[in-house]
Specification:
By secondary structure, the chain is of the alpha/beta class. The protein has two domains: about 180 residues, 3-Layer(aba) Sandwich (Rossmann fold); about 160 residues, Rossmann fold, CATH 3.40.50. The protein has 13 helices and nine strands. The chain has a five-stranded parallel beta sheet, with helices on both faces. Helix 5 packs parallel to helix 6.
């Protein structure tokens, strides 16, 4: 697999190399926001507040579905009066009980880790909310427990349906008065994603297309992606995961200030070195910093210092700023861009972004 940047502006290649339609799926993100919001409204999630505010909210999900919990916690912010925990495992922690709300999210509806958590939540008497496809094993658990279930039309790879899965938990949290959600919030978020889809459309040339430009930056490098706030940390995790699954590409993610205590050391490592006399350029680090308007002042100082450290060492840097007023809008601006960039990176390498054969093989082997 070789990187050929000219592929990004070859319309025939972009179509032929993406037979399952990952690019159109990413372009549908705005529609997914509206559909997820409508499905949540139809599920009457206001009834979750009937017994008062829970002691804690636990969001269970794996892969792209697990990001929904991270998004909810980031939107709620540090002032939320209870813990919001994302759980990516088979086991519900011992402290979770009848006064807690468990939100089980699965794009396939049959993720074994998530089904395990949902089953344990019912046995312990927790309040349960399910989010996933209709007529799935997850819905069956919710129906049997007389728990609300938001059926969303996830088709194809669930990672392409992020917004279908992420919006209902935020609607539920708004019903519990845990997150600020103005009446037009989800329409504004859809507008952010529509604008990104227009700017990153396949027919837009690389020099003006932000998705293609980011793919060009990331190609033939090992990206180290850092957020500078809870909002941009989620976008960093999402970008790294999308690079892994869409482009089959390695990436490291983190958040300042914690990354300044460990990951920053890679700036002095072997992948940070550049041999200007080499016949061909080797793979080196690229630092990707995702900025936010809600950075702590000390984090801003760290970010500025890290930029100088990287540039002093000749490590290339890409800075991206979150756009929008509400945390969910700002998250959408970076997630939308990253989803496009990861897909274009795959297509630039001639890789079909949809199949994940290693993941499929792993699941098949452990199910035997």
């Amino acid at each position: 697999m070789t990187w050929e940047p000219d592929r990004l502006d070859d319309q025939a290649h972009l179509s032929e190399a993406d037979p399952s339609g990952m690019l159109p799926a990413v372009a549908a993100s705005a529609a997914h926001v509206r559909t997820g919001h409508r499905a949540a409204a139809e599920a009457q999630l206001d009834r979750l507040a009937a017994h008062g505010r829970p002691r804690a909210v636990v969001v269970a999900g794996m892969g792209g579905s697990g990001i929904a919990g991270d998004m909810l916690a980031a939107v709620a912010g540090p002032g939320v009066p209870l813990p919001i925990v994302t759980l990516r495992s088979y086991q519900l922690p011992g402290w979770v009980g009848a006064t807690d709300l468990v939100i089980a999210v699965s794009g396939s509806g049959d993720t074994e880790e998530t089904l395990s958590i949902a089953t344990q939540a019912v046995r312990r008497g927790c309040a349960l909310l399910g989010v996933g496809p209709a007529r799935s094993p997850l819905e069956a658990i919710a129906v049997q427990a007389s728990a609300p279930y938001v059926a969303v039309p996830v088709g194809g790879e669930s990672r392409a349906g992020l917004w279908l899965l992420a919006v209902p938990p935020i609607v539920a949290a708004a019903a519990l008065r845990l997150v600020p959600a103005e009446a037009d919030l989800f329409e504004r978020v859809a507008g952010v994603l529509e604008d990104m889809a227009h700017r990153c459309r396949p027919s837009s040339d690389s020099f003006i297309n932000p998705g293609k430009s980011l793919a060009l930056d990331l190609a033939e490098s090992v990206p180290v992606i850092w957020g500078t706030s809870a909002v941009t940390r989620v976008a960093a995790v999402r970008l790294a995961g999308q690079l892994n699954t869409n482009a089959k590409y390695p990436a490291l993610c983190g958040e300042l200030p914690e990354a300044g205590h460990n990951q920053v050391a890679v700036l002095d490592g072997p992948l940070a070195e550049r041999d200007i006399f080499a016949d061909s350029a080797g793979w080196t680090l690229r630092l990707v910093l995702l900025r936010d308007v809600e950075e702590h002042p000390q984090v801003t100082r760290q970010r500025e210092t890290v930029l100088r450290l990287a540039r002093d060492r000749g490590v290339p840097v890409t800075e991206l700023a979150a756009e929008g007023t509400h945390p969910l809008e700002r998250m959408a601006s970076l997630i939308g861009l990253g989803d496009y960039a990861s897909t274009y990176l795959a297509l630039g390498y001639g890789i079909d972004p949809t199949p994940v054969s290693a993941i499929t093989e792993l699941k098949a082997r452990i199910s035997q």
